[in-house]
Amino acid sequence: MNKIIMVTGGAGFIGSNFIKFMLNKYQDYKIINFDKLTYAGNLRNLSSAENNPNYYFVKGDIASEKDVKSIFEEFSPDYVVNFAAETHVDRSIMDSTAFIMTNVVGTQLLLDSARTNQIKKFVHISTDEVYGSLGQEGTFNENSPIKPNSPYSASKASSDLLVRAAWKTYGLNVNITRCSNNYGPLQFPEKLIPLMINNANNNKELPVYGNGTNVRDWIHVEDHCSAIDLVLHEGVPGSVYNIGADNEWKNIEIVKTILRHMNKPESLIRFVTDRPGHDLRYAIDSSKIQKDLGWKPQIEFSDGLKSTIDWYLSHSEWIEEIVKGDYVNYYKQMYEER
User: Does residue 128 have an active-site annotation?
Assistant: First the structure.
């Protein structure tokens, strides 16, 4: 049976990986990629799907009521998977306006159209950052209180609550997923792992916030995509699912591991002024999705990190295209002026 799935933000890192995952797995699904193509959206991420008759790209903004109504009217999607978001914490600290418009207003406009058009399910892709910061012990589960500490995470927490309200108030079939830090190919190089790989490859300094002891729980993007697939098909209406790989690393350990893989000296590391409100530690308890839906991460971190490094080193043209843009000016402002 054909299914029409609208993927918002499908030209970004996780969204593009998810679209390719779904096209490879389901031959009879039609995927509509609805993306504004901001700085982090790149259609080259989906060049392998361009000739697939089940893939369609539509440029549009989820924060535009006109754009959202138009795509629902044209394609009548059965399902919506909402990746579209402004995501970078540093950018939200500098100016949160775009985060409110996309992550809050955009999510509500999608929910309104999803309800009006009676879609079968709305899957909202969120983040573990909505839970705030952990100390040295414990993990976040689905019942952990929401305590966001940055404009970015506050905007994502707001969108999560709007999705919950759509289920409670209108009975819209929704799921929310909250994942730990993703890594893998096609990630925009403002994020930690691709930034460190690219800088090390060019013998540039590797900026590390504070003393590098902030802890993150890392998961390969392909494992994340397989979890979203399960939630889309089998998730219990109204449920939240945490997605993680029980793979905690201090930031400085990640950076040093990358340097060892690349045979680069640790002298490239440069400690910079810490980010305001920098959360100390994230750790996800994903036992619910593992028990209820039978999901487990499959990619060992050592293997996944090595393959990720190899991918970036063998796709220099992809990186070069990006670093010509606002990425360069942005990081000059963030680090060199401090």
Answer: yes
pLDDT at position 330 over 70 = no
**CATH code of the domain made up of 3-182+218-243:** 3.40.50.720
**Domain definitions of the chain by residue range:** 3-182+218-243, 186-216+247-277+300-328
Give the 3-state DSSP-derived string for 225-293, with helices as H, strands as E and coil as C. HHHHHHHHHHCCCCCEEEECCCCEEEHHHHHHHHHHHCCCCHHHEEEECCCCCCCCECCECCHHHHHHH
Q: What are phi and psi of 265, to 5 degrees?
A: -80, 150
Q: Is the pTM of this model over 0.85?
A: yes
Q: What pLDDT was estimated at residue 325?
A: 57
Q: Is 152 part of the annotated catalytic residue set?
A: yes
- Looking at domain 186-216+247-277+300-328, its CATH architecture is Alpha-Beta Complex (3.90)
Whether pLDDT at 1 is above 90: no
Q: For all residues of the chain together, what is the average pLDDT?
A: 92
| Least confident piece of the model among 44-58, 80-94, 115-129 | 80-94
Q: Look up 129 and say whether it is catalytic.
A: yes
* Catalytic residue (choose from 35, 86, 112, 128): 128
Q: Which of 67, 86, 129, 248 is catalytic?
A: 129
Catalytic residue among 79, 152, 209, 312: 152
pLDDT at 166 > cutoff 70: yes
Which residues touch 16 (CB under 8 Å, ≥6 apart)? 10, 42, 45, 46, 186
Amino acid at 277: G
Give percent of the chain with pLDDT exceeding 70: 95
